[in-house]
Amino acid sequence: MFELFQLRCFVTVAEELHFGRAAARLFMTQPPLSRQIQLLEHALSVKLLERTSRAVRLTAAGQVFYADAVSILRHVEQAAVLASRIEKGEAGRVTIGFTAVAGYELIPKLISAAQEGLPNIDIVLREMVSKDQMEALASGSIDIGLVRPLATDGSLQQYPLAREPLMLALPRGHRLARRKRIAAGDLHQEAMIMYSPDDGKYFFDLVTGLFAASEVHPRYVQQLGQTHTILSLVRGGLGLAIVPASAMGLPYPEIVFKPIWRDDITAQLHLVWHAEHHNPAVTTMADFVIRHSAHLTAQVSRAG
């Protein structure tokens, strides 16, 4: 089997059609260059060059082999460059998990910025609730998560990416729709569409804690995991819901959103990834998101 160096020697001679000039390009003398060509021809059992005292020319086989040799060397160089980029975290693939609400505005902005700033990193998106993202991070099926803050075992790095206020979603024709701001007592015994304590645990805890602190007792008529499904039921007149402000970006003209009585309780979104991983592109992507987080959320005062 021939060696890459022999290919380089042959390609250089084929381009120069002169052993002296080819040897100079390769920073070697003519005798060892001739020897490399001989070894290559012996390995292939093919004569590639015809050499006389006056000229060097390619044989018919040499002309065909030259094109393939150039292609092989180009692929080798590209592979070496790619391997170097991957080791440096400049290229590769990163799988990102995100909650459905993050997909309304934040994810499109993030991916658009990353495609421009990190063009050699392929991004694979996985939509899933925060709890499932944590399990996916543990199993390695995603590399980075955009999650609501949940308790971890310390193996994950977390960065608070964004925070957003809570809003009351209600049908446009509801008696509270004309209020500028909703008071806690307005929701006492009111029919509410609530987040699931399983799939929507973060918001379930946040909203039930809000009601408990205000000594308000609404009626939970349904419990669901996804914000867009909750809003669909609100639109149908089945109840009201307290949702993150990012939900206002969904196209539900039949629903109005009103500020609630607590400005200090906000929903947070964290960027999470394993402290120890074997994919350099993960660190690059996490750093990119952190550096650009202020810009990415400048027009989005909320993030899902």
Summary?
By secondary structure, this protein is α/β, with parallel strands linked by helices. The chain contains 9 helices and 11 strands.
What does the model show?
The chain is an alpha/beta fold and 304 residues long. It has 3 domains: 4-88, Winged helix-like DNA-binding domain superfamily/Winged helix DNA-binding domain (Arc Repressor Mutant, subunit A), CATH 1.10.10.10; 92-161 and 267-296, D-Maltodextrin-Binding Protein, domain 2 (3-Layer(aba) Sandwich), CATH 3.40.190.10; 165-263, 3-Layer(aba) Sandwich (D-Maltodextrin-Binding Protein, domain 2), CATH 3.40.190. Helix content is 41%, strand content 23%. The protein contains 9 helices and 11 strands. Strands 3, 4, 5, 6, 9, 10 and 11 form a 7-stranded mixed beta sheet that branches. Strands 1-2 form a two-stranded antiparallel ribbon. A two-stranded parallel sheet has the order 7-8. α1 packs across α3. The chain is rod-shaped, with a radius of gyration of 31 Å.
Oligomer category: single chain
Number of strands: 11
- Helix and strand string, N-terminal first? HHHEEHEHEHEEEHEHEEEH
Question: What is the helix content?
Answer: 40-55%
Shape: rod-shaped
CATH architecture of the largest domain: 3-Layer(aba) Sandwich
Largest sheet data: 7 strands, mixed
Number of separate structural domains: 3
- What are the low-pLDDT stretches, counting only 5+ consecutive residues below 50? 299-304
Mean pLDDT: 91
Going by CATH, the homologous superfamily of the largest domain would be Periplasmic binding protein-like II
